[in-house]
Amino acid sequence: MHTPIEEILRRLGGNEAAAQLTGVSPEAVRKWRSAGSIPPRHWPAIMAATGLAWEDFSGVAESAEVPPGATAALVLADGSVFWGRGFGAFATTKPSELCFSTGMTGYQETLTDPSFAGQIVTFTFPHIGNVGTNKEDMEAPQIFARGLVTKEDFTAPSNYRATNDLGSWLKNMNIPGISGVDTRALTLRIRDLGAPNAVLSFPEDGKFDLKALAKQAADWAGLEGLDLAKDVSCTQPYNWTDGTWSWENGFAETNGGKRVVAVDFGAKRNILRSLASAGCHVTVVPATSSAEDILRHKPDGVFLSNGPGDPAATATYAVPAIQGVMAAGVPIFGICLGHQLLATALGGKTYKLERGHRGANQPVKDLTTGKVEITSQNHGFAVDEKSLPKGVEVTHVSLFDGSNEGIQAKEKKVFSVQYHPEASPGPSDSAYLFKRFVELMG
């Protein structure tokens, strides 16, 4: 940062004035001081108030010497550079939101989860890649995360199911990775200052224009207001019949029963498998499907899938469809983005979390039973409980930060959860939700 943070705060009139201007707490401003950095999303307001320019915030030099052995760089919007060793594809990502995931396993499922579109994933667990990759653990046909960050170099696969190593798999998917990064320091930065914009660069010629990369990250508007569901959704309806996986038989074959239309805002395959194994005949339809498109299949129930981006942006076309389904009296079950969209359709609002919830160790309390579930999560937005109208009941709450994790409206036969019951972190703590949906359909 070219202009010292103390000088910036002095120009703003102190901590309280800075907090009021940027809409954060005084505690957040104190964290800025201790970290020596202000999150880039606040720069425009501060520049307007002080007359400072982007160069006064960015600490990137015109040129920088590449450290010995470094072949890749993770460049943050505030000019911070994390050097490391590149692997996967020679590429430079588009500006992305940098987040962290606390899962110790399931990195292949994480990277292929469409909900990670527009993001670079930092894994807090140091050993990523040691079980290789295989076709069965794909949650979608491709990788949707834009890049990944790890502490240690990946090793040769040590699992009998592996058909490829992590580096080759990423290269085939045209996705770059960077190892050798102090992921603890990076995670603390995200935790304390929020998820920053970043660019991951692994150039084949080994040349870096750090200032240009930092400016690309700083100029990106971020995920707020961005509808990504249309980009990751299917384009035509199709039927899904595979059930869940078992060691003895692989993926089960299902005959179906209850007719369920799954609206694909970025659906993970294992959600569709869980529905099929619960006794549902699943028809998947595109995110932009209208209520008429959905009801044409004569469903016993409608499922609203997970997905990426800002729910408020996706809601412009999804909410009218959901409201049309509710008006027809058809039961609805939503997960993740589907939860946020259902809440919006019922009259609630959503907001952007500072750092999001991502990982397989998230405790959630079911207020209807008093039980605590260990859940898997991946979301950067949340439902504002205070905005929910009368008749909508809060059913689940996060024990990390108290944010909303589930709702239901009994009179309308609809319910949803923020977390991912199909990901089995408990491993079966949340499996009851699919049975509840089947029971709701009668």
TrEMBL record:
L-glutamine binds at residues 115, 307, 309, 337, 340, 378, 380-381. InterPro entries: Anth_synth/Amidotransfase, CarbamoylP_synth_ssu, CarbamoylP_synth_ssu_N, CarbP_synth_ssu_N_sf, Class_I_gatase-like, CPSase_GATase1, GATASE, Lambda_DNA-bd_dom_sf. It catalyses: hydrogencarbonate + L-glutamine + 2 ATP + H2O = carbamoyl phosphate + L-glutamate + 2 ADP + phosphate + 2 H(+); L-glutamine + H2O = L-glutamate + NH4(+). The active site is at 336 (nucleophile), 420, 422. CDD domains: GATase1_CPSase. GO terms for molecular function: ATP binding; carbamoyl-phosphate synthase (glutamine-hydrolyzing) activity; DNA binding; glutaminase activity. Residues 70-201 form the Carbamoyl-phosphate synthase small subunit N-terminal domain. GO terms for biological process: 'de novo' pyrimidine nucleobase biosynthetic process; 'de novo' UMP biosynthetic process; glutamine metabolic process; L-arginine biosynthetic process. Residues 1-258 are annotated as: CPSase. Pfam families: CPSase_sm_chain, GATase. Gene3D superfamilies: 3.40.50.880, Carbamoyl-phosphate synthase small subunit, N-terminal domain (3.50.30.20), lambda repressor-like DNA-binding domains (1.10.260.40). It comes from the Bacteria. Keywords: Amino-acid biosynthesis, Arginine biosynthesis, ATP-binding, Glutamine amidotransferase, Ligase, Nucleotide-binding, Pyrimidine biosynthesis. Composed of two chains; the small (or glutamine) chain promotes the hydrolysis of glutamine to ammonia, which is used by the large (or ammonia) chain to synthesize carbamoyl phosphate. Tetramer of heterodimers (alpha,beta)4. Small subunit of the glutamine-dependent carbamoyl phosphate synthetase (CPSase). CPSase catalyzes the formation of carbamoyl phosphate from the ammonia moiety of glutamine, carbonate, and phosphate donated by ATP, constituting the first step of 2 biosynthetic pathways, one leading to arginine and/or urea and the other to pyrimidine nucleotides. The small subunit (glutamine amidotransferase) binds and cleaves glutamine to supply the large subunit with the substrate ammonia. Belongs to the CarA family. This is Carbamoyl phosphate synthase small chain. It comes from Acidocella aminolytica 101 = DSM 11237. The gene is carA.
